[in-house]
């Protein structure tokens, strides 16, 4: 009984084969083949559900490796397709498995279980079923987050899970405040880092502080305005101290949180005034133009890019609008609140984010996209250009680009202009 079984993990290949027909109403036009064979939808769906039932059973296996592999396979499946009805029938079994793995598993298993709990709530949306799941898992997640003896990775995963699940399900304002307080107790310890005699411990906990700060910031976006004002007063003058942290990810998390706090503060009060504005903008400008040689080039590039946007937000109340494309639709991210929400769910869903934006009712409500756009296979086929046309277009674009670049590189092209 204790020997690990050979678990065939759920892969992206499975997702592409099995969801092509099942979710054809929402698929990206580019994913359709022009003359592909018809797929038996019912058979592929039954095959998929049979596989998933097997993975659910394996989350109770005696082998830790087998349990973790099963959890990871379920995560891949939940992030790559909508399985609402399948999950609804088995939500209590899944909740019990996740609870057991978080309570009794080791670090990697706890992380996988926490990730699966997030996806479970994303699949079910903000209904009574998700509330029941959170009532069961919430206390367990809080206990791990606050347990100094638990691994940092497990506490980090549970902090993220706590924030996301609370964001999805909580109608109870006291539960929202309680969860935010739990996360505050974690990341505010980073404020005392300079005064902490045990510097090694502080550095070790930085990843946990980052996750707790980002999860707390996500929950702040759904707080009532009077609570938002209290939190701004409490944290706005302390957060700039984190901009001096050695960890680039903590500096970025603190910078983005500051930009979001300023955005919320100006929404609540058009005449909002920050006393130490000059000192703060000086710090942000230094980070936006950081040239320290002892820092990695990749870190510096990433930091400068983020802090240019943060500086614009704080100084000029400006946000560089981003466009997210999914299928035939477009979504514009035009504020820090929306960016924070999008980044959080993208981290959880990974490559499945675009698919969920197309077909997940909960996410479409969060981003105000309206009901899913239903497109049948025939419509999608007409939207897609043929392979030959695409080849001609790419070839012409390549020639034009080469010609333009050659002109710029060839100094002789400018000779005639001067003589």
TrEMBL record:
Domain Interferon-related developmental regulator N-terminal: 19-315
Cellular component terms per the entry's GO annotation: nucleus
UniProt keywords, alphabetically: Developmental protein, Differentiation
One Pfam family of this chain: IFRD_C
InterPro entries linked: ARM-like, ARM-type_fold, IFRD, Interferon-rel_develop_reg_C, Interferon-rel_develop_reg_N
Domain Interferon-related developmental regulator C-terminal, chain residue ranges per copy: 360-413
One GO process term, biological-process aspect: cell differentiation
Homology family: Belongs to the IFRD family.
Quaternary structure, from the entry: Interacts with PSIP1/LEDGF.
Record's protein name: Interferon-related developmental regulator 1
Phylogenetic lineage: Eukaryota, Metazoa, Chordata, Craniata, Vertebrata
């Amino acid at each position: 009984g204790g020997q690990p079984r050979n678990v065939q993990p759920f892969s992206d290949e499975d997702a592409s084969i099995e969801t092509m027909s099942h979710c054809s109403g929402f698929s990206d036009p580019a994913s359709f083949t022009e003359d592909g064979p018809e797929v038996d939808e019912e058979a592929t769906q039954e095959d998929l559900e049979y596989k998933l039932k097997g993975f659910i059973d394996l989350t109770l296996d005696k082998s830790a490796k087998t349990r973790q592999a099963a959890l990871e396979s379920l995560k891949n499946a939940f992030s790559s397709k909508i399985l609402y009805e399948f999950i609804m029938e088995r939500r209590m079994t899944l909740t019990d498995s996740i609870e057991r793995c978080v309570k009794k598993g080791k670090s990697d298993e706890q992380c996988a279980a926490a990730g699966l709990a997030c996806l479970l709530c994303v699949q079910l949306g903000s209904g009574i079923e998700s509330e029941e799941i959170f009532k069961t898992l919430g206390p367990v997640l809080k206990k791990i987050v606050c347990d100094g003896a638990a691994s940092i990775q497990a506490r980090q995963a549970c902090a993220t899970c706590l924030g996301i699940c609370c964001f999805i399900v909580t109608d109870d304002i006291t539960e929202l405040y309680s969860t935010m307080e739990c996360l505050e107790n974690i990341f505010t310890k980073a404020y005392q880092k300079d005064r902490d005699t045990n510097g090694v411990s502080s550095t070790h906990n930085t990843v946990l502080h980052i996750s707790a700060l980002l999860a707390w910031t996500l929950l702040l976006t759904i707080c009532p305005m009077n609570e938002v004002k209290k939190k701004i007063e409490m944290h706005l003058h302390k957060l700039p101290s984190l901009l001096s942290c050695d960890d680039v990810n903590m500096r970025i998390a603190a910078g983005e949180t500051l930009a979001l706090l300023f955005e919320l503060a100006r929404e609540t009060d058009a005449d909002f005034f920050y006393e130490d504005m000059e000192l703060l903008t000086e710090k942000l400008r230094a980070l936006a133009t950081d040239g320290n040689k002892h820092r990695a080039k990749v870190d510096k590039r990433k930091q400068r890019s983020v802090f240019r946007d943060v500086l614009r937000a704080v100084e000029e109340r400006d946000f560089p609008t981003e466009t997210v494309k999914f299928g035939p639709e477009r979504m514009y991210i035009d504020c820090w609140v929306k960016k924070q929400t999008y980044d959080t769910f993208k981290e959880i869903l990974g490559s499945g984010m675009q698919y969920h934006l197309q077909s997940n009712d909960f996410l479409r409500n969060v981003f105000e996209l309206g009901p899913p756009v239903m497109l049948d296979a025939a419509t999608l086929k007409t939207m897609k250009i043929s392979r030959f046309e695409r080849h001609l277009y790419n070839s012409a674009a390549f020639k034009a680009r080469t010609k333009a670049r050659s002109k710029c590189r060839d100094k002789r092209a400018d000779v005639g202009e001067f003589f």
